[in-house]
Amino acid sequence: MARQNVAEQFVDILARAGVRRLYGVVGDSLNPVVDAVRRNPAIDWVHVRHEETAAFAAGAEAQITGKLAACAGSCGPGNLHLINGLYDAHRSMAPVLALASHIPSSEIGLGYFQETHPDQLFRECSHYSEMISSPKQMPRLLQTAIQNAVGRSGVSVVSLPGDIADRPAPEKAVESALVTARPTVRPGDAEIDALVAMIDEADKVTLFCGSGTAGAHAEVMEFAGKIKSPVGHALRGKEHIQYDNPYDVGMSGLLGYGAAYEATHECDLLILLGTDFPYNAFLPDDVKIAQVDVRPEHLGRRSKLDLAVWGDVRETLRCLIPRVRAKDNRRFLDRMLKKHADALEGVVKAYTRKVEKHVPIHPEYVAAVLDELADEDAVFTVDTGMCNVWAARYLTPNGRRRVIGSFSHGSMANALPMAIGAQFTDRRRQVVSMSGDGGFAMLMGDFLTLVQHDLPVKVVLFNNSSLGMVELEMLVAGLPSYGTTNKNPDFAAVARACGAHGVRVEKPRQLAGALKDAFRHKGPALVDIVTDPNALSIPPKISAEMVTGFALSASKIVLDGGVGRMLQMARSNLRNVPRP
Fold first, then answer.
1. C-alpha 65, offset from chain centre
2. What is the C-alpha separation between 109 and 126, in angstroms, rounded?
């Protein structure tokens, strides 16, 4: 039997770690690895049109499956294109292994053609970034990289010169057992005791939940019910905590709605559960705060803490539930539920008048119809910008749907590439890319990837011919909008030219039929919907203190606008409020 080369050993180890796809663009320094993939039945090469797409796709796959995913870029410019998608995966805590192939090892440091230093370039967006400069480093270095990515939930990067990849692998190399799943982490007894005491002493407790509550829905609901606590959430916590939640008071942040802000500021004790919510201006500074997080570096970096608890949310709650005293007084909870319903009653009226006749189409109406027609287990990938607003307010979670986006990194153009990775995990599951025209156009070339691999992704394009969120940021800062207008083609015609299903929608009465046709279509489809460029979620009051980006005014006023079916949920929860 012929001796393995380093590239073959590399691919074998990836397959043993559970990697089923390697997303990337071929190139000469990658050739040994790509050829090894070609000959390995356990792993596929996914050819994309841009390496940034490869990284976004791998990150999305990792978020959907919870398992290691992988991408690759050729030397120099090729692997440089990975960096934005890797930043997103790393900040989303998605386990991704990136292969950055390198120039010939004998030329490193001599200004060779396409020379960069990938082992240095990727350090800020990874837990581990090292170069294989000798075959003798295999397989230990790759195994270390995999275990950093899986164990620490983020990116690892391995740089591999093409000539090293083609050399014989070491004989009798020791291959250790690979860690491919993370353990649960239980807090120490002292922290549990301290948190129990704080909860028992407080009259009014609020829970604020992030993505760390994934898999802990039942425990959060039981805990909230026992201590009569309102439950708010950050954007990344929405899909995990909002559904079947009789204690829901909405979302905080600039895209927020409902009574989450009031509930976090009017309580005696705020408990942050699995959230690295970045906007500290929305957090109170005059109530006691405890934070539970499995990542110790997250504890206390957004607000002053009275107690830091290092542990998995589900395991922590399982320790707390039998020990805390049940609270009988639910006045605070009921008052917040009433405030939440009242707040939603007010904003939902903004886009209920003649929306089915308004031209250009209200984007809120598009999101509401999409939410009603999409499958109960659909995966939505969401572009950064105004699509974040529509997803946050109109997509209804149910415990089976997934909503992923560049919610921590905030990159444009993420929705289409993420949809590629999500769809590869299950071709039968409905995957919907909620794309803005600006984001879609930025990586539009990878629409061809959908066609080439016959991926049945449905692109729902909110086409307002502008960079809507940037325009809003300018308005909030008191600046005239400038450089935000897009001159777009007929994107539906572009889709048809690529060989996909494409339809353009300019009138509201065409919308439902167009979406149904796209969802029925067996291959990739694009619905180009011309939406109102003036439908910005502008706060009801713009103050001089408001700043650009996702910051906040000194008056803590959030964006206004519709909220879809969330009003129905709030009304339903009011039934739990005892009547005098």
1. 13
2. 23
